């Protein structure tokens, strides 16, 4: 059989084309930069797991992760109760209820107060020690003013004495010790203490700080509506007026030396409450313009905002559980006609916002 050969000119074209393809591929390969896939940072934040409503229960504090101290909406029942959230059982503890109750850090004592009277309740024994705040009707508690536990054994409360304003320190044994502030001409609306530093907000909306035993004070910020000191005493969150009908939230260090750039803004913004670990801040906000109205939890590091409810309860405190995985807001006033009280419990869970 005669062998057929390809024409010479065809072979030349074939080899040329092959070389072109090979050099072309090599050129393209040299022009490609291979980039490793980007690594995704997993930003830890929070998610809402569930919400429970307890009707007829006005919670006052957490005794543990599964127990609440509360009062009822019954006019004939004026005792404090303990509610077990696991089995739903309740029991009275023999201590008379008042308008407010604040648990000590170790949850063994409670400071009870209304507009006229105050007492220290011992939850381990069920006994109560009435407090003598006034002196011959010349001094007494400040209505609607907010005190706080400075440590396990001491509670600090705003008072008025004759024509001067200040605070008193109350120990668990019922001893009341007045303390004179550097300036005494303005009512104190809220006070908190950590270590030797005393923080207080006066009626002129000035947030101040003084060191225990000092006759000097430092103005931290003006036009302040509310403030909250972190549990470790290193950071200060405060809501302040930045414009007409505008309240902004800022977080600074406890000396007020860092910039106070607003984080969020609203028409109303109150009830600031730090989580026990100081990593999150709960707040109530009313802001139709920004679409942020209700109860929120903010990651203090990332600024991530988790909405818990669209109901902005600006009058009730937000109270964290010991672990920081739950918080409650109580609503209602049993002293008004046909009042119905309730408590909303928000259960949080850790989650990853990139998932």
TrEMBL record:
InterPro entries the record matches: 6-blade_b-propeller_TolB-like, WD40
Organism: Brevibacillus brevis
Protein name (record): WD40 repeat domain-containing protein
One Pfam family, short name: PD40
Classification via Gene3D superfamilies: TolB, C-terminal domain
């Amino acid at each position: 059989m005669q062998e057929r050969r390809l024409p010479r000119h065809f072979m030349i074209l074939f080899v040329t084309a092959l070389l072109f393809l090979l050099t072309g591929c090599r050129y393209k390969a040299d022009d490609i930069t291979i980039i490793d896939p980007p690594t995704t940072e997993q930003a830890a934040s929070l998610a809402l797991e569930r919400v429970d409503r307890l009707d007829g229960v006005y919670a006052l504090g957490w005794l543990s992760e599964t127990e609440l101290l509360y009062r009822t909406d019954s006019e004939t029942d004026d005792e404090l109760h303990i509610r077990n959230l696991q089995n739903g059982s309740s029991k009275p503890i023999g201590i008379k209820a008042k308008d407010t109750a604040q648990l000590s850090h170790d949850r063994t004592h409670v400071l009870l107060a209304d507009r006229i009277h105050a007492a220290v309740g011992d939850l381990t024994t069920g006994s109560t020690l009435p407090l003598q705040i006034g002196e011959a009707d010349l001094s007494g508690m400040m209505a609607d003013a907010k005190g706080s536990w400075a440590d396990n054994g001491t509670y600090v409360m705003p008072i008025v004495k004759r024509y001067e304003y200040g605070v008193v320190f109350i120990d668990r044994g019922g001893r009341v010790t007045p303390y004179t502030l550097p300036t005494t001409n303005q009512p104190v609306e809220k006070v908190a203490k950590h270590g030797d530093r005393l923080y207080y907000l006066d009626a002129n909306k000035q947030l101040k700080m003084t060191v225990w035993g000092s006759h000097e004070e430092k103005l931290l910020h003006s036009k302040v509506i509310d403030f909250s000191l972190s549990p470790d005493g290193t950071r200060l969150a405060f809501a302040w007026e930045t414009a007409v009908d505008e309240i902004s939230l800022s977080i600074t260090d406890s000396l007020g030396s860092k910039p106070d750039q607003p984080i969020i803004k609203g028409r109303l913004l109150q009830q600031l409450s730090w989580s026990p670990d100081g990593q999150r801040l709960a707040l109530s906000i009313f802001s139709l313009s920004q679409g942020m109205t209700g109860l929120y939890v903010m990651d203090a590091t990332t600024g991530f905002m988790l909405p818990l409810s669209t109901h902005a309860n600006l009058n009730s405190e937000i109270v964290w559980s010991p672990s920081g995985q739950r918080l409650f807001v109580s609503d209602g006033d049993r002293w008004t006609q046909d009042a119905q009280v309730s408590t909303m419990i928000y259960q949080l869970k850790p989650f990853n916002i990139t998932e």
